[in-house]
Amino acid sequence: MEPAEHTANRTLTFDEELFLWLGDESDGVRAADSERIRDIAAEFARGFDALADIGPAVTVFGSARTPEEHPNYALARDIGAHVGRAGYAVITGGGGGIMEAANRGARDAGALSVGCNIELPREQALNPYVDIGLRFRHFFARKVMFVRYTNAFIICPGGYGTLDELFECLTLIQTRTIRHFPVILVGDGEWDGLVQWLRDGALADQRIDAKDLESLHLVRDPAEVCEIVDAACARQQAYGRVQQRRTTDNAPGAAGSRGAAAGSAG
Description:
Elements: H1 4-8, H2 14-18, H3 27-31, H4 33-51, E1 57-61, H5 71-85, E2 89-92, H6 98-109, E3 113-118, E4 132-136, H7 139-148, E5 153-155, H8 160-174, E6 183-186, H9 192-203, E7 216-219, H10 222-241, H11 255-265
Parallel strand pairs: 1-2, 1-5, 2-3, 3-4, 5-6, 6-7
Helix pairs in contact: 4-7, 5-6, 5-10
């Protein structure tokens, strides 16, 4: 645990300060909430503007601590190159380790390389292989970018952060918040124990359904990744074309939206 005197000597990150709950809020802290909300909205807007035109993409998660000489670094770089050559941009957390390797693979293939970095108490710099580099102060805004602008999730070996991202993706799929998204687990033998634990525990006890595991793909050969992503992308396109997206014309409160509602009511 970090000693209190260490944190007292530095400025807290936005999320640290936001979650610093002491049992009540002073009038001054409450009054600053409107400014916090504006900051959060501005961060979403910057991300949306920067990524709106990146085209098909995959998001790669994995450890920031993996050194360049590790086999998992080479694996992630190979995956980044494979999906890049297949026409997909590569989105990562923008840091070192696996993230750097995947961005580097995209750069090797001449594909667009995106890094969504995060402000941390200990600095995490953007790696040098990103073409679009964004720095977020809020984990939740950053996570939206990982999901909104991707067609698939590729999970490389990692730690707590990677596991958090893995299970958040699975939760979004289970709740049908997102549809037809594959979760591709890579790394020789890395995920076998976790998947078996889910089968023997959560599935056997009926805390999840068998179909909840169908979106998981255990992959050992990077060449297999593109086939899975291509098939998912086609299903997403077919589903998305028949859905009504929110526009300025049909947004709640828009004149066109009110007119359509009135027409249907009549």
